[in-house]
């Protein structure tokens, strides 16, 4: 009882002192009081293994989409579930894609309409990959909430939902109309969403003014606004030889082994110093201007902290600007692994019959996925040809996502700066993102709406890696940021 | 009834015609009548996932050893379970090795004593590797018994057990004393067995005259006697960089990736035409003599059948002698796979932090594992050094098994020829084996006993590969071969 009374007193005092901020304080107070529920909601969502890259997990992903739909319906949103067609699997079979869930809260023509985009599918994760905790059982350790998808992108989607819910719970009018567009295929390239966005251009998107994406993270401990992302061209290079795996004792020496071929062609992608060796691939990269260099110089980025955070002995570049440029606006090649070879513990003496390398090229303006696909395919076939191997090489680009770049002088970014200042008391950093949010570019090209990326994830959240997490602080303060942002956007002058 | 009568007539007729063979016919008749039990016994054994390379499966392996022990005790053998010490795991922890099971049947000093060596551990197998059936559920399709370990080496061990059992069931005296030595670590290099063999040289092995190993297969549809095997030097090459996996978008471009380093050093092991590129490794290989070439020319080996069986478009060599020589008496390098990289379905955009390549070199006379270890380690470190990578390379030889070669003019081989002729009606082929039976060389060096390899596995059994099998024919006729062989060995003149 005592505690309750003193809290009330504090609220009244703050209310008196800040005038307009009374309602904001009510909202943040509401968020603080409900944070355990928010953490539990995230735990429920993380417990669903909504791995979109593995078709055997598709039922879980469908279940995840159902949970989102139900939640938005409970909040009395105008919910619609939109079909995005089918997916053709490698074996030729065709399955339906998970439907996209949309919802609308408010349709006041005098208000701006903000569309929040998010996704609830996740990257693969297995405990034995090196997770300290079960990746599908959200576990709090020292203020961090560990679980696959915690930061990418389940907590941000929930934070947006909770932001709207807070306004409604306090019976406060939403300062803008809010729409949600939540998908389940982001991690594999937002399959089907391009077509849906085009089809909904003059329907769902017709009254949307701005699109907000919170599918990225800060660069440092300082909050950030993101104005660009790299794209991604993800390749499968498959070498197939014997009709089944052979024994290296019984058959070794008689066979031209697919693994030897595959290793040899992979070794022609990138040099030890990070130079891409595929002819022509870097030709289309935009010039690095002096103006750009200056923006990078102002970014609060400590190389030593970054180096220690990721735990490497030396970074690829020894100065901040080159490093940021190669993270944000130059392409790179990563070899992710090989499917079909022996990958377990122990000493299997197998000659794998069919091995598929997975590698990807992060794309930047003005690279075109279709051009990159041809350059990579031609290059690998040319190198393979020289080996005169009897094995078969197949090269396929399975993701071709374009980069995205925003205008940092737009009012959306000004609103973002004010919201960050209100919640965190600091100016946000202006950053780019090395990763890919494929749909950003599609939104820009097709809907021609203005887009902002407003991240709440921490710089060390370990997206796509073992021990992914979001801190309780970022999750809860992030919810407040979204509440504030809706308010700030309402102050942007209507055209 | 009619059928029974006619069978009895045939037996009597054959008995009259062949004299001594009466008892052999009783034995083969017994085998025929009990073949369903034999298949069921194999099914029971295959159902135990006794994968010795995966320590998480150690309980299953222990259970397998217990089943063997129990079976030999039921048969009233003089059973002993021998400790072979401990195994140090990669994380530094120490666990006991599975004990070796031995048994003795008969101790008549006037008879020869034959020691049968076998193993009941298996290579890894997962349904998703491409097995048409559950690898641990023995499944009969068109006369073939599919299951992991069916041919390597569970059916041969059972066939030896059933051979002894048949003599005992018919109350017939064993023509020789028979000892069994069954281990559970063969697939990872027979850990601990070297020490045991040395320790038992003047105990268990003191009354042993001959050692028989049936851990290999025929070369064609014709039964074979095997007189040589290759050894194996199995390596782990581990490149370690960041302290945990990173995201190719978030961090790609800033990091010297361990996978890129690993691919580059793996690409320096073997050329497209099969030449080993590691300096010095082939220096110790024995000269290929004209006499040897002639033996190879006489082997009934159809390259086209072999090519089609393994399902490749072209073999490494275009003539029989070169091909057999490179399968049997020249070394080769196989890259088996990479642990720690992304190996699943889908499109994970990970930068793996620590990746371990598994590759092996099949060794031949007169290569020395310790020398090869130094040559490979020095070479990989030299190549890695040139890359000036900040990542860490560790190279380790985890198996170093020597090759083995027997004298084909020995009486053991003459006995083998007679036994094959009796059961199959043909002369056996004299062949070598590209794979490794590490213990053969140890038996030879330490016990100085004469050794024969007497295979019953088919040429297309798919050892270590998906869909391993043994045919019902080879399993059952192989049991008869072992029965006949015990008889033939009893005719070898005592010194």
TrEMBL record, chains A, B:
GO MF: dipeptidase activity; metal ion binding
Domain spans labelled Peptidase M20 dimerisation: 228-385
InterPro entries the UniProt entry points to: ArgE/DapE_CS, Cyt/Met_Dipeptidase, Peptidase_M20, Peptidase_M20_dimer
One Gene Ontology cellular component annotation held by this UniProt entry: cytosol
Signal peptide boundaries: 1-19
PROSITE patterns, per database record: ARGE_DAPE_CPG2_2
Record Gene3D superfamilies: 3.30.70.360, Zn peptidases (3.40.630.10)
A GO biological process held by the record: proteolysis
Keywords for this protein: Hydrolase, Metal-binding, Protease, Signal
Similarity-based family: Belongs to the peptidase M20A family.
Name used for this protein in its record: Peptidase M20 dimerisation domain-containing protein
Organism of provenance: Pangasianodon hypophthalmus
